[in-house]
Design brief:
Length: 307
């Protein structure tokens, strides 16, 4: 039993490292395919001799395999290189912007959980009623509406027309309201739908009938017994959606001029600053792998069957 468990853990860890290796290799390849950054640094009118000297200075004249090995070695040693645009260490730039992205993702996921979980439970306990149809409609809209369009509409309504909230930037809690609401819609829809499906399955189990036969109150049956058994998929989707938001907040940060990692990644792509793009991809890939590992840990802690 112990050997089989260790084998499963080893396979899972190897899978995570393989996924991380593939993501890092793709980041290197896409960075090199994005074009020559010397044109952006020196300008299109720079003489070829000056551009070639800069290529040698940046190490772009070396064979690709040498550049790739240096890239992997830097990741292992914690050296993610220096930005071609900002002339700073990429790790410094990332950790300067990271608190803003974490603030946005945390607020968005908090709203998504606080609305999505009760909405899914309400739909499951009133299956077939207008509550269920309304919750399903909200979840469908949340998965269908583009966040870019939603963000602009919220800016037009609450910032331009009504003047209640600032249209962008950061600094106060009021600046966080519109971008966090925009970010919360998509994960809220996923959480609501999965909560409804898990709760519907749990409410159909025989132990729910036993709990009702013992005279337990409806809230206790729903929350203490059914929701407890439906919690595992909900926790999984919350953690995974957090990773998706952490690595995919570009559109929202662009709409609201939010100074996070997404805005930094967009600036790096526009400038063809591939060392910075690679560093951001590396950070996102490591964060996503760690979040997947956290899901496995949560499974083993919450569900005795996994242990």
């Amino acid at each position: 039993m112990k050997t089989a468990r260790l084998r499963r853990v080893a396979v899972r860890v190897a899978t995570l490292f393989a996924s991380l290796f593939i993501a890092l290799t793709m980041a290197f390849a896409l960075g090199r395919l994005s074009g020559d950054p010397t044109a952006n640094i020196l300008g299109p009118t720079a003489p070829p001799e000056q551009r070639e000297a800069l290529r040698q200075q940046l190490g772009l004249d070396r064979p690709l395999i040498t550049q790739y090995l240096d890239y992997i070695t830097g990741i292992v040693t914690g050296d993610l290189g220096e930005s071609l645009q900002f002339y700073q260490a990429n790790t410094t730039l990332i950790f300067d912007r990271l608190p803003f992205t974490l603030q946005l993702v945390g607020a968005g996921m908090a709203i998504a959980v606080l609305i999505g979980v009760p909405l899914g439970v309400l739909a499951a306990t009133r299956e077939g009623t207008w509550w269920d149809r309304a919750a399903s409609t909200v979840a469908l809209l949340g998965q269908s509406v583009p966040v870019f369009w939603l963000g602009m509409m919220l800016v037009v309504l609450f910032a331009v027309k009504l003047g209640w909230l600032p249209a962008g930037q950061s600094g106060t809690p009021r600046h966080l309201i519109l971008p966090s609401l925009t970010m919360s819609l998509y994960p809220m829809a996923h959480i609501a739908r999965l909560t409804r499906a898990s709760m519907s399955e749990a409410l159909a189990e025989p132990f729910i009938d036993s709990a009702r036969a013992r005279g337990l109150s409806r809230p206790r049956v729903v929350w203490r017994h059914a929701f407890k058994n439906a919690l595992m998929p909900v926790l999984t989707i919350v953690v995974l959606q957090t990773g998706i938001l952490l690595s995919g907040a570009v559109a929202i940060e662009y709409v609201f001029s939010w100074p996070g990692l997404g805005q930094l990644a967009l600036q790096a792509v526009q400038f063809r600053d591939f060392p910075l793009v690679q560093a951001i991809v590396v950070f996102g890939a490591v964060a996503f792998v760690l979040l997947n590992l956290l899901v496995d840990v949560i499974h083993s802690v919450v569900d005795p069957r996994v242990r």
